[in-house]
Design a protein that fits this description.
The chain is 40% helix and 16% strand. Helix 2 crosses helix 10 and helix 6 packs across helix 7. The strands form 3 sheets. The chain has a 6-stranded parallel sheet. It has 10 helices and 11 strands. Helix 2 links the parallel strand 2 and strand 3.
């Protein structure tokens, strides 16, 4: 039976630590860190995410601003706004909420944010620094996964980490982070995905399994070995007529099945998702420190 990796508690601890650091800055007469979130269009999920991030900032003392732009905003208008905040000394982090409307090139947008304010960790320069092990901003979800492992003192050195999924947001960066020759990593890493004829061939060999494929309850108990550490990144809505909303959230792991066989497991909700938000706050604080020379 597994120990639950409580992302909610760790995220709360991180926010408390950051709040204390920001209060100290303010007591010394220094300005607060600043984060601007840019939202284009009316995607309901994006609106919820941006609102949650603004509340997080307010809670710990980060100055936050939301730039809500209409769906028909042109790419050039968005890029001009990003350049404005690149030059604004009051804001140390810039977040452009994805996905963007189809007429806007995500890559151009990401590349326009200066690397020193790229608190999502998506700029090619920051991604390159991650791969070669230099100081950088880590993408927030992989950063949160690594932090969970550290805070629960889960051994990673020499362990076989299997990542299911190869997205630029989770799969590729977390694989590269776990490869690094440093504390909290130094693992042997396998990345597998939908092209594998038999995924269980790989997942059964994992000491630490990171599931990030976007398929509800895909990882079953017979796909992991006894005592594996299971990190579930998935957030999927499935129909549930007993719920008031008509649906409930589940991960990429069949939690009830796998719980009995794993040594540690993250719940959904209450696991990696909350950590993603907490690590955005940490990245913003770290951006402030680098820009201000603190």
């Amino acid at each position: 039976m597994a120990v639950i990796l409580d992302g909610k508690k760790i995220a709360s601890d991180i926010k408390t630590e950051l709040k204390e650091s920001i209060q100290k800055l303010k007591s010394e007469g220094k300005p607060a860190p600043g984060l601007v979130a840019i939202l284009v269009g009316d995607n309901p999920a994006s609106k919820v995410y941006v609102s949650s991030k603004s509340k997080d900032c307010e809670e710990i003392g980060i100055k936050s601003k939301v730039e809500a732009l209409p769906e028909n905003t042109t790419e050039d208008e968005l890029l001009d706004l990003i350049r404005k905040y690149n030059d604004d000394p009051e804001y140390h982090g810039i977040l452009v909420q994805l996905p963007l409307p189809r007429h806007i090139d995500e890559n151009r947008v990401i590349e326009t944010i200066i690397p020193s304010k790229d608190v999502d960790g998506f700029h090619p320069r920051n991604v390159g620094n991650l791969v070669i092990g230099k100081d950088t901003f880590y993408p927030c979800t992989p950063y949160g996964i690594v932090e969970i492992l550290k805070r629960y003192d889960i051994e990673t050195r020499g362990k076989h980490v299997v990542v299911v999924g190869r997205s630029n947001i989770v799969g590729k960066p977390v694989a590269n982070m776990m490869l690094q020759k440093k504390e909290g990593a130094n693992s042997i890493v396998t990345v597998c995905h939908s092209a594998a004829k038999d995924l269980s061939r790989f997942t059964k060999d994992a000491d630490i399994l990171i599931a990030a494929i976007g398929r509800p309850k895909f990882i079953k108990a017979d796909m992991i070995k006894e005592g594996a550490v299971v990190i579930d990144v998935g957030i999927n809505r499935i129909e549930d007529k007993t719920a008031k909303s008509g649906y409930r959230l589940v991960g990429d792991v069949d939690y009830e099945e796998v719980f009995e066989k794993a040594s540690y497991i993250t719940p959904v909700p209450g696991g990696v998702g909350l950590m993603t938000r907490a690590m955005l706050l940490r990245n913003t604080f770290e951006a402030y420190q680098k820009i201000m020379g603190n």
